[in-house]
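Key result, reporting period 2: structure in, sequence out.
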């Protein structure tokens, strides 16, 4: 069987014998056909007007809330998300749709005076057409929603290509959306690289979240077509901890950011940089918090660190920590039938080790030391990525001194590196992002283009 026809399979990472989806990938022609059907539906969706689009997005938010228990259980089963996090993601998903339900009423342009005084100059933002969305498995409801909601609000139609590991979640979300919008306005296209490439090669605007290598390839494909593209990629995020910080609180934040959802977030903390005298007490506090962190069945409400998404992910984590001295001593996971890996904190990592410059995407972090804040900033900036940095200090002056020199798209002070405010722009620098920001008002700009109109009087 060719790679293009390989089946799409989604398994429960806590119990790999539990298969949620097993279906043939539709292939490139089906992907192109889905884009064309969406393109046919787009003019009618736009002509329906702001009230219709707003009502549809509001109805989707209400339907997500009504199905919250079902969606939560599905996220736990399909992607191994701990149930407390899954429930919070579903609540955020409803909030995202409700937030963008007001966007159709926003002003889409402005009126300007002409240089000569006669006539009018107008700007107006218009949808691109079909939005091709390629999404990962780790936030199976929230990421498709924070891409699809602003795309639909501004009058685009959507073709969503989810990661194979989150196919069931995407299909269930599609049912909710499709009950509120006309036929063809949103289509879910299961599949892998073949289908993703086909969507990127045909859509009128493309948004991608996933691995750096794949995202860079998608960005090149789309950019060569002259089509708008944004790509949210990897992270190797640092937490800088100053001696004046509340070290126990900082350690609690760091432990959650390292091992929450088994570290499978692009905003997870991968490097902990202790400044000066913070090193020894921070090490002790962080080890204690990691040891106390519940690891096991994602359906257990106390679990913080569940399974990794698949065997390949677990092998990547195992290989990355091989031969290193581990400090945390976290107990083995309570269950051994799934793809589990215990959280780990490592120190004295040799220069050039992959952990210092590559994203592992697991519950693993390196403890580093810095002489002072300037040294810590240099360490934080020394990697190819620049998504988010957290800074922990009791001094506002210290925080402000370091903020503008950190080469990351997001900076969080006295808070974990994880966590997203969906009403604000999201994105990074360097290899973490390509193209404009997503979320918030920035997303409405991305899914539209500006037209400038000059209106001169017929009879000067």
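The corresponding designed sequence is given below.
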């Amino acid at each position: 069987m060719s790679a293009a026809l390989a089946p799409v399979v989604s398994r429960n990472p806590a119990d790999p014998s539990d298969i949620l989806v097993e279906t043939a990938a539709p292939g490139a022609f089906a992907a192109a056909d889905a884009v064309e059907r969406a393109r046919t539906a787009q003019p009618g969706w736009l002509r329906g007007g702001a009230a219709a689009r707003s009502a549809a997005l509001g109805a989707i938010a209400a339907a997500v809330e009504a199905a919250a228990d079902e969606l939560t259980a599905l996220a736990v089963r399909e992607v191994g998300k701990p149930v407390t996090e899954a429930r919070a993601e579903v609540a955020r998903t409803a909030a995202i749709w409700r937030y963008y339900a007001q966007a159709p009423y926003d002003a889409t342009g402005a009126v300007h005076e002409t240089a000569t005084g006669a006539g009018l100059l107008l700007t107006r933002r218009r949808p691109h057409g079909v939005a091709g969305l390629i999404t990962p498995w780790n936030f199976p409801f929230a990421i498709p929603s924070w891409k699809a909601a602003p795309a639909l609000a501004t009058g685009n139609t959507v073709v969503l290509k989810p990661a194979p590991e989150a196919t069931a979640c995407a299909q269930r979300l599609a049912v909710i959306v499709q009950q509120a919008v006309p036929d063809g306005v949103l289509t879910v296209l299961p599949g892998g690289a073949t289908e993703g490439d086909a969507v990127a090669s045909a859509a009128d605007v493309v948004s991608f979240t996933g691995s750096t290598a794949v995202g860079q390839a998608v960005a090149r494909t789309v950019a060569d077509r002259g089509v708008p593209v944004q790509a949210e990629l990897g992270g190797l995020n640092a937490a800088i901890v100053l001696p004046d910080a509340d070290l126990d609180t900082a350690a609690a934040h760091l432990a959650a950011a390292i091992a929450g959802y088994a570290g499978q977030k692009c905003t997870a903390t991968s490097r902990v940089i202790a400044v000066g005298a913070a090193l020894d007490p921070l090490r002790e506090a962080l080890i204690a918090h990691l040891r106390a962190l519940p690891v096991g069945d994602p359906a257990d409400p106390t679990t913080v660190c569940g399974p990794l998404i698949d065997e390949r992910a677990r092998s990547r984590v195992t290989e990355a920590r091989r031969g290193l001295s581990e400090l945390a001593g976290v107990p083995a996971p309570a269950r051994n039938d799934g793809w589990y890996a215990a959280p780990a904190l490592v120190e004295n990592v040799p220069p050039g080790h992959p952990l210092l410059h590559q994203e592992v995407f697991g519950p693993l972090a390196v403890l580093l030391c810095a002489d002072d804040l300037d040294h810590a900033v240099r360490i934080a900036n020394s990697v190819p990525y620049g998504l988010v940095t957290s800074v922990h200090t009791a001094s506002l002056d210290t925080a402000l001194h370091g903020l503008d020199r950190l080469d990351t798209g997001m900076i969080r002070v006295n808070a974990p590196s994880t966590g997203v405010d969906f009403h604000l722009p999201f994105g990074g620098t360097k290899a973490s992002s390509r193209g404009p920001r997503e979320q918030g008002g920035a997303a409405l700009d991305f899914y539209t283009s500006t037209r400038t109109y000059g209106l001169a009087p017929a009879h000067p």
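The longest strand covers residues 15-24. The chain has two domains: 3-233+432-455, 237-413. This case is discussed further under Risks and Mitigation.
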